[in-house]
Amino acid sequence: MARKFFVGGNWKCNGTTEEVKKIVTTLNEAEVPSEDVVEVVVSPPFVFLNFVKSLLRSDFHVAAQNCWVRKGGAFTGEISAEMLVNLSIPWVIIGHSERRALLKESNEFVGDKVAYALSQGLKVIACIGETLEERESGSTMAVVAAQTKAIADKVTNWDNVVLAYEPVWAIGTGKVATPAQAQDVHRELRKWLSENVSGAIAESTRIIYGGSVNGANCKELAAQPDVDGFLVGGASLKPEFVDIIKSATLSCFFPLGNLASCFIGLDLMGNCFSARIIESPSNTGL
Questions:
Q1: Per DSSP, what are the bridge partners of residue 99?
Q2: In CA terms, which of 177, 202, 235, 271 is 20 to 30 Å from 54?
Q3: pLDDT score of 173 more than 90
Q4: 195-234: pLDDT as tens digits
C-alpha cells in the first residue's frame, strides 16, 4: 500500500470567528485531489474546533494543537484527550517545537503524551526537529533520533502516527530546508525506524516536513521520495494552502515489499515524469 500524502495546517494561536469563516470558505471551494491521493487535516485553536468541524467539507478533517498527558482533572487550562474524543476530533498535534521550547516539554513527556492520546483513540501528528545550533554542530540526527526514540519507547502501534520533521530554525523564519536537506533527514529517520522499530513500520509510517512551507517551495519538497507531506504553519492561513494540498499529485510512493519501493513523480495532469526503484532502509548501507 502506498503512503498517502498528508497535508496538515497548523493555525497556531490565530484567528477570529470571521477570519476562520473566510479560511474555511476558501478550503470548501477549492478543487483539490481526492481523499485517495491526499489526507488533509487543519488544526485551529481549541475554541474554534467545533465551529470549524461544523463548517468544513467532509473530506477534510480537524486536529487539536495539543492535549494533556493523562485523564483530565485538576489541570487548569489543559485539554484532555477524552474531551477531544467527546467532540469527535480525530487528530491532535503533539510535541511541537514551540511547546518544547516555551513550555519545556521534554522528550519523555512528549512520548507519554503521544502514547496516552493514542490509547484514547486519537490519531497523532508527532513533531520532532533540531535547532539551528544543533544543526550547525552536526547533531541533527542525534537530536531527532532521541526525540523519536522517546516516542518509540512508549508506542507499539504506529498505524495512527504521522511523524512531522520540523527543523526549529525553519519555523516561521522564512528559511526552509532545501529539498535535499529535507530528504536526507527523512531518509535517515526512516532508516532509524527500520533499525530500531521494524522495517514494516519504517515503510508505512508517513514522515512529513514542516518549516516555512509555502506555495512556492512545496512542489520541489513534495517530489522527494521520503517526504510524505507537510505540516504547514503561516501559509495554512492563506489561499496558497490550496496549492500546497495540490502538490500531493507530484508524489506517489509505492512500497514493493521487503527489498525496495517505487517512487513515481507525476505532473499536475497525472503524467509520469520520473520513476525509480529505491532500496528499503534495511537493505541500504546508509
A1: none
A2: 235
A3: no
A4: 999 999 999 999 999 999 999 999 999 999 999 999 999 9
Backbone phi, then psi, for 142, in 5-degree steps? -60, -40
Beta strand 229-232 with 5-10: parallel, antiparallel or unpaired?
A: parallel
Cell 520513476 -> residue: 275
- 280 within 8 A of 260, measured Cβ to Cβ: yes
Return d(Cα 189, Cα 165) in angstroms, integer. Answer: 9
What is the set of active-site residues? 96, 166
118 three-state secondary structure: helix
Task: Please report, as a single letter, which amino acid is at residue 206.
Answer: R
| Cell numbers that stand for 38 in this block | 491526499
pLDDT at 272: 47
What the block records as the C-alpha cell of 100 is 518544547
Q: How many residues does the chain have?
A: 286
Tell me the domain boundaries of the chain. Answer: 5-248
Kindly state which CATH superfamily the domain 5-248 is placed in: Aldolase class I (3.20.20.70)
Q: How many CA atoms lie within 13 A of 48 on its CB side?
A: 23
Question: In 3D, which of 201, 252, 256 has the Cα closest to residue 224?
Answer: 252
Question: pLDDT by residue (tens digit) across 123-163?
Answer: 999 999 999 999 999 999 999 999 999 999 999 999 999 99
Half-sphere exposure of residue 198: CA atoms within 13 angstroms, side-chain side = 9
Q: CA dihedral defined by 269, 275, 280, 286, rounded to 10 degrees?
A: -110
Strand partners, 89: none
Q: If phi over 0 gives left and psi between -120 and 50 gives alpha, with beta otherwise, what is residue 125?
A: beta
